[in-house]
Every structure is written in C-alpha cells, then in structure tokens.
Amino acid sequence: MSTSYVLIVFAIAIILMIFLISKCNVNASMGILIAAIVLAIGLKTPWQDIEGTINSGFSGTIKSVAIVIFLGCTMGTVLEKTGAAVRITKWAIGLVGEKHMIWAIALSSAILGIPIFADTVVILLIPIVSLLAVQTKKSMMSYGTALYLGALVTASLVPPTPGPVSAAALLNVPLGQAILWGIIVAIPSVIASTLYCMTLKTPVSPKEEFIKAAQESEKMELPSLTKSMLPILFPLFLILLNTGASIIVPDTGIANFFAFIGSPLAALFSGCLLSLLLTGDKWKSKMVLNDWVNEGIVASAMPIVVTGMGGALATFVKNAGVADRIAEVIAGTSFPPILIPIIIAALIHVVTGSNSLGVMTTAALVEPMLATLGISPIAAFLACGTGALMFKHANSSGFWVTVSMSNMDVNQGIRGVGGASTVAGFTGAVVTCILVFAGII
Among 4, 27, 64, 379, which is most exposed with the fewest C-beta within 10 angstroms? Predict the structure, then answer.
C-alpha cells in the first residue's frame, strides 16, 4: 500500500468517526469502534484478525486505567453528596476576600475539577456563585464562565479526572509526572482565562431560584475544610511521593514500598476511604457504601469504554504503520511536531464538543508517532490536554449547563465560555511549546 493510500484511508476513518459522533449523535464509544473497523478493512487487515486486534487493543488499554477511573468517579460522587465542594468554595472566598471574588470562584473550581467533572462542578456551585454575583454586583457572564473554566482546565490536564488519566495511560506517562506537569500548565491557563472573565461586563443577572437555594443552603452543616480537602490532596501526595522516591532512592525497599502506596490504584483507593470521613455517622449506611458507589460506576463506565475503544483504534494505526507515515511526512517539513497533537485535539473537541474525547482520542492517535516526531510522551500529554480546551461552544453539554444556569443567552455564552476556553487552551499550548523548545520536557 502506498503512503498516499494509507493516509487517505486514515483520514476517511477519522472524518467518519467525527461525523457519526457530532452529526448523527452516535455514542462516542460506538463511533470510535465503527471507525476502527472501517480503518481495519480499508488497510486490508485479514478478516480473521480484526476481532482479535480490537479485543487486544481494548483490553490492553483499559487494564491500567479502568479501576483508577472508577475510584476517581466514586470519590467525586462522595465529594458532591456531602457538601465538600461548597466548603472548599467558601474557604477560597475567605482566602482572597470579597474584592477578588472571581479568583476564589476560579480557584475552588480548579481544585474541584481534579476529581469531579466540570459540568457537575457548575451544577454543585451555581447557587452559591449566583448569590455572590448579587452581593458583589457582578455579571453572571463573568462569574458563571469562571466557575466552569477552572474545572474545565484541570479536568483536561490533571489526573485523576478520566480524560487525563486515560491519556497518560495511552501515552505511557507515569501518573505522578502527569499530575505535576498538568498542574504546572493548568495554573497559567486558569489565570489567563480568569483575567479574560474579568473583561466580561455585560450585565447578566442570576436566576432567582439559585439565589434562594444558596440562601437555604447557608443553614446546611458542612464538613470541615480538612476533611473536604483530604480525599483530593492525599492521593496526589502519595502519587508524587512515589515519583520522588523512584528518582531519589531507586531500586530500594523504600522505593518499592512507595511504588505500591503511591500507585494510582492504592492512592485513589485511599482517597475513597478518606472521603468516608465526610459522611459522618452515615458511613455504614447502604446509601454511602452501595448507592453512591453505584453512581460512581455509572459515571466511570463511559470514559472506560471510550478509552478502550481508543486503544483498539490505535492498535490498527500502529499495525498498519499509519502513524509512521504521517510522522515522516511532517518530519520532512519545517512544521513544529508539537503542534500536531494540539491541532488534532482542538479539531476533535471543536467538532464533537467533548474535551475528554479530544484528550483521549488524540492520545491514542499520536502515541505511535512520538518516536518519529521526536516528541516526549509528557509533551504529547500536555499538548492533548491543552488542545482539547480550545473553543467550547454550542455542541457541548458543559456549554449549555453553564450558559443556561448562568442565565446567559447563546451569544453571551459564545463570548464567555467560548472565548475563555480558547484563551485557556491557547495559553496552555504556548506554555507547552515553550517547555518543549527549551528542552525541559
């Protein structure tokens, strides 16, 4: 098969996948599976090998992430149900003061976006943010956008949110490195998007029902800040400790011990156990030990299956040498290779509306290209995460959740959420490129 034929078949498969997901409303996992089968047939994979290749690609990918995604979603469910998210927000407000309220919203949202989906963060905190908008006489166009963007950035870049967890696994990036570098790139991205939000001064009043809900929630008994933060920070601490031990004292008993307790599975499981502290006397109840875990299973199913399907698609890409041929074409030009995953992730996100899908699918597609392109796995990981932030718009559930709950119209939402997400993604992409060009990653 000629290079041109291989590239045309690959392009058709990817365009078909995007069309099915964005225009035909086909579930993402099914769309990726169909694209993988089309790619396999187009690349003349022996018929008897197609099913086995899909199964091996699927299982080989999810074996390292399925339990981690499940544990992360379960922990996030407990944080949602117990009021920990509201407690963290109130702490951030007290930290920065009323004059800098928008920074408190962005900070608390960014912290909560690490274990909780960005859409859910908006749903949880929109009442208190609406009340703050009234008290400070600010526009919900500004506050609502900041609320969503903080969580969106960390949900794209910092594990254990499913998108970056899956991307790290697909690219063979140790989770400790993914967390550390993800935070480093997320910080300027959140700052830039928040500064953009401060320019959004079109008057938009909050919805009355959310103001009333916030006033009623003032009577709720919230958990302490320590209990609220511990399930989030302790697992991250263990994972980073494991990374440090492997560098400082490699191949020792200490390093081996931390390799277990700092593994993604053990660290996230510790977070789940610590989250039980938030439930008080209810921790023994069926609601906590069974019903909330079931909700975590439901929330984790979709990203696990999508990740596995992405792995199946990537297997055909590897076996046919598609990645090598694409990489060789790019390497023969002056086009900076680091821009490839950024552009692919941005295109998938803009067309499908899902930043998680943009992160995961791009990671699967570019992993086979890394050696030829000369990009490190961590650089590709950051490129996928930042590219998948670009221009959130009306085909995204997160866009509609934020716009409708913030009382914005569509045009205001495009200016607010669309503009801020593009600023965040562009800033993160620039930081990533600087790190690459400086030889740091």
Answer: 4
**Torsion, Cα of 14, 384, 346, 410 (10° steps):** 120
Per-residue pLDDT tens for 160-173?
Answer: 888 899 899 889 99
Q: List, for residues 78-122, the tens digit of each pLDDT value.
A: 988 888 988 998 899 888 887 899 999 999 999 999 988 898 899
Q: Please, which residues have CB within 8 angstroms of residue 421's CB and are 6 or more apart in sequence?
A: 149, 152, 193, 389, 390, 391, 392
Domain that holds residue 185: 3-437
C-beta of residue 358 within 8 angstroms of C-beta of residue 384: yes
DSSP conformation letters of 338-399: THHHHHHHHHHHHHH--HHHHHHHHHHHHGGGHHHHT--HHHHHHHHHHHTTS---TT-HHH
Q: Which of 129, 178, 126 is CA-nearest to residue 157?
A: 178
- Overall number of domains in the chain: 1
